[in-house]
Amino acid sequence: MKATEVPEIAGAYVFAPTPYADERGFFCRTFDADVVRSVGLDPCAFVQDSVSRSVRGVLRGLHLRSGAGEAKLVRCSYGRIFDVVVDLRPHSPTYLGRAFFELAGETQATVYVPAGCAHGFQALTDTADTSYRIDRPHDPAEDVTIAFDDPELAIPWPLPVTSMSRRDREAPSLAEVLKHTEG
Question: How far apart are CA 17 and CA 75, in angstroms?
């Protein structure tokens, strides 16, 4: 497994395993505490694993947590997704930086999203399973959502949106969220 820094987002990484394929399919390690530790992250900090299943065109996000934030490892375990990370940490050298990834079940690559960054994705295949490893128990009172189509962010979503939650559909603009969190 190899860890690579994401230049657009300070403190973000992509962890790329080496799948071993044969006539039966493939096998690969999707989490390695030593590799996580090698980039300065505490592998024991992660306390919750979750998975979502989406169909082609479904968009989830852009989500983040208020308060101490939430760091997470995100991986598409089956299918393919267009994954987005936006740096919303005011003192970060990459503040308002955006990074885009295509995550796929074939590669099992994982993106580390630092606390204070917004995250979202769109399913590119008929079925896409997305796995999350999160560093804090979920508290719905801390959920923050930003409009997926905010013109300031200009995220190039690859497909028309076929479905999204009401919360995501009614999300405020980035400017409104920043005004609320900074003021």
Answer: 11
Inform me whether the pLDDT recorded for 67 exceeds 90: no
- Distance linking the first and last C-alpha atoms of the chain: 42
Q: pTM for this one?
A: 0.94
Tell me if residue 132 is catalytic. yes
Q: Which entry of 13, 112, 119, 132 is annotated as an active-site residue?
A: 132
How many other CB atoms sit within 10 Å of the CB of residue 138? 14
Structure confidence by residue, pLDDT tens digits, 74-109: 999 999 999 999 999 999 999 999 999 999 999 999
How many CB atoms neighbour CB 34 within 10 A?
8
63 an active-site residue? yes
Query: Is the model's pLDDT at 181 over the cut of 80?
Result: no
Whole-number Å distance between alpha carbons of 85 and 96: 10
Q: 22 CB contacts (<8 Å, ≥6 apart)?
A: none
Residue 150 exposure: Cα atoms within 13 Å on the Cβ side: 23
| Residue of 155, 137, 138 whose CA lies nearest to 146 | 155
| The total number of residues written for the chain in this structure | 183
